[in-house]
Amino acid sequence: MRNRGLVIWLTGLSGAGKTTLALALAEALLAEGHRIEMLDGDEVRENLSRGLGFSKEDRDTNVRRIGFVARLLARNGVIVLASAISPYRQSRDDVRRSIEDDGVRFLEVFVRCPIDVLVERDVKGLYRKALAGEIKNFTGISDPYEEPFAPDCEVDSSTESVDQSAARILSHLLEAGATSSSVTQPQAVAADTCEAAL
Amino acid sequence: MRNRGLVIWLTGLSGAGKTTLALALAEALLAEGHRIEMLDGDEVRENLSRGLGFSKEDRDTNVRRIGFVARLLARNGVIVLASAISPYRQSRDDVRRSIEDDGVRFLEVFVRCPIDVLVERDVKGLYRKALAGEIKNFTGISDPYEEPFAPDCEVDSSTESVDQSAARILSHLLEAGATSSSVTQPQAVAADTCEAAL
Q: Any CB–CB contact under 8 A between B55 and chain A?
């Protein structure tokens, strides 16, 4: 099983906890001996999409580039943790299709968090600036976010801990046969929100 | 050994035979059971660099992006065959450094072919257009190509066959311990032009 790649795609608003969750998943999966790569939206922008902005077209282009790299890695046995706002449904679905067409599993995880909680948290101070109009095209404030209709898994960082969310996703992967059997056992939190889509 | 990645970077003028050589290498290495990905300059442009042109800056950006993806793949055990004109020494050297800094072997292969032979061949009709001024910034005609000072391996498609070039590179890899031992045995052609750099 360790030679089977997989793409875990974390989508959600800025500050919802995508990267934090990806790190927790990476730690657990590394402990299992899996090959892991984390593709972070911001980091990929720096390396593959410098010069692109935040128009719909540019955001979609960035998402497709992350998808392209994720596909190459996953088809070579790597578990890819891609965390990117990826606000548009169509481009997420296109990435899923390109990856599944290559025989690789794709798990869309919607990292939900209510906007008022994000504005309240505002770890990076970005929401304050966006609300003041100092940042344009800010997802959730002045730019759209299209929630997944049917994510493979949904977590909510305002109601559960990172460990709980991670455990639920790992449990889902385990049940789907996508990872080996000794991954941390899941906690009994809202397990029904993960679809058996794999 | 099959879990060790490697980047084989083929640089040279358009039409010199980089992709053809990469295909021959891929075939031999696949037969050995290695994981292989081919990153072709034109294909990567389509997927990661659409919108970039052929200025020095844009060419360098494209080369760095190929290098970024090659590094991610190779550090996960893939042998990456990157074929790109990659005309500037500095960006090739930067890519090498980033990959070697990640603990991955990097083999620069200079695919040489005299310009008059390329103009004579002109398989895609590009040299005719470039000489007529219909294509601007064409490497070797109206744009520079900086030959590697000390490539790990050098082949010449005007004096040896694809099989001879491939065999020489494979022999070099084998001697360097970068691949397993049953790869096609090398032919005794100009073996001294491959540096024992690995």
A: no
Measured in degrees and rounded to the nearest 5, phi and psi for residue A132 equal -85, 0
> Which of A35, A50, A76 comes nearest B37 by C-beta?
A76
Amino acid sitting at position A27: E
The pLDDT value recorded for residue B194 is 58
Hey, which residues 78-137 in chain B have their CB within 8 Å of chain A? 78
pLDDT at residue A189 in the model: 38
Q: Copy the structure tokens of residue A144.
A: 């759209």
How many residue pairs from chains A and B have C-beta atoms closer than 8 A? 37
* CA distance readout (Å), B86 to A38, A119, A164, B60, B78: 27, 46, 47, 7, 21
pLDDT at B146 over 70: yes
Average pLDDT on A156-160 reads 97
Helix, strand or coil, per DSSP, at residue B120: helix
Tokens 């770890």 sit on residue = A123
Task: Round to whole Å and give the CA distance between A145 and A158.
Answer: 18
Q: What is the gyration radius of the CA atoms in chain B, in angstroms?
A: 16
Q: Write out the two tokens for B9.
A: 């970077």
Nearest residue of A to residue B63 by CA position?
A48
Picking from A7, A40, A65, A99 by the largest number of B CB atoms within 10 A of its own CB, the best residue to mutate is A65
Query: How far off is chain B from A172, nearest CA to CA, in Å?
Result: 25
pLDDT given at position B44: 87
